[in-house]
Amino acid sequence: xxxxxxxxxxxxxxxxxxxxxxxxxxxxxxxxxxxxxxxxxxxxxxxxxxxxxxxxxxxxxxxxxxxxxxxxxxxxxxxxxxxxxxxxxxxxxxxxxxxxxxxxxxxxxxxxxxxxxxxxxxxxxxxxxxxxxxxxxxxxxxxxxxxxxxxxxxxxxxxxxxxxxxxxxxxxxxxxxxxxxxxxxxxxxxxxxxxxxxxxxxxxxxxxxxxxxxxxxxxxxxxxxxxxxxxxxxxxxxxxxxxxxxxxxxxxxxxxxxxxxxxxxxxxxxxxxxxxxxxxxxxxxxxxxxxxxxxxxxxxxxxxxxxxxxxxxxxxxxxxxxxxxxxxxxxxxxxxxxxxxxxxxxxxxxxxxxxxxxxxxxxxxxxxxxxxxxxxxxxxxxxxxxxxxxxxxxxxxxxxx
Length: 401
Fold this sequence. Notes:
By secondary structure, the protein is of the alpha+beta class. It has helices spanning about 10-40, 45-55, 70-85, 85-105, 110-120, 245-285, 295-325, 330-355, 365-375, 380-395, and strands spanning about 125-130, 145-150, 150-160, 170-175, 190-195, 200-205, 210, 225-235, 285, 290. Strands 1, 2, 3, 4, 5, 6, 7 and 8 form an eight-stranded mixed β-sheet that branches. A two-stranded antiparallel sheet has the order 9-10. α3 packs across α6, α3 runs antiparallel to α7 and α6 runs antiparallel to α7 (about 295-325).
C-alpha cells in the first residue's frame, strides 16, 4: 500500500506542488526542526526557501502575482509542512488568512496595494482578534477606534498574535461606534483595520508597541506576541472593505478557512507521529523480538493509522466544500475538532511506543508532544467547535412538530 493520507482526484499541477513541498520538508525542515525548536529560533532560512517556492502567494490570484491555487491545495501543503515542523505552518497561516480576507473583502485599492507584495512574501501578515480578558468571546472585545477627521485613533491591548513581531501588516479587529448607535449588537459594531508596521519589537510605529515574544510550552520558533495600541492613528482608507461595522463577519470568514488550516496542521503532526512510532516499533526489541510484533503495539499502530486517515478525509472534505463556494462552517468545525483531538491521541500513542526515550529531548516525539496541545485551542477550542457543530445540526435537522 502507499503511505497514509493520500488524496484522490488531484490535478497534475497539485501533485507537482505537493511533491515539491514534501521534498523541501524532508530535506530542509525535518533535519533542523528539533534543534531550532529547542533554541526557540526563528527559521529564517526555511522561510526564505518557502518564499522562493512561492508559497506565500499560493492562494493569491494570478493577477496579483500569486499562484491562484485552491484552499485544498493550500491545506495539503500545510499538512506537509506541519509534518516537518508545525511552527513553520503557523508562519504561513496567519499571512494566508490576512491575504484571504483582503482578496474576499478588500477594496480595489487595498488589493492592488497589498496583495502583490504579499504574494512575493515581501509583506508578511498577522491578524488579531483576541484580547487578554476575552478568550473565545469575541463579542467582549474592548479595544476601540474613534474617528478623527480622515483618521481613526485606536486604543487597546490585543493578545496571541502569531507573527506579531515578524509581520509588517496586521489585520486588527476593534469596536467602532461610528454609525452604530448604543444598543447595536456587538458583532455589528466591529471593524477590521489594516495596520502597517515595521517588523520587530518595541514601538514599531507611533502608538503601536509589540512588547516581545510570549514564552510558550511548544509552538516555538514562530513569534507569538501581544499588541498594544495607545493613540495609534490609522487612515480611514485602511478600514478593510472601506466600510465600518463589517469586521466581525470578515474575521469569521478568515477564521473559517483558518480552521481548515488547523485541521491540516493536526493531520500533518499526526502523520509524523505515526511515522516515528511505526519506525521505532521496528527498531526496538523486547523479549527477543521487535516490539512491533507484540499485539499490543500492533493495536496501537492500527488505531493511530485509522485516526490519521479519518482526520485527513474530513479535512479534505471541508476544504473542497469551501472551494465549491458552499457554506462550510459545519465541515470546518468538524474537521478542526476531530483532527486536533486525534492528533493529540496519535502523538501520545507514539510517545508511549517510544517508552522512556520519548521523554528525552534527543527524540523528535518529545517536540511533537509539546506542540500538539496548541491545536486543541487554536482557532477556537473543542468546546467552541462543538457549539458551532451543534447549532448547525439543529438548523439542518429542525423538527417540524
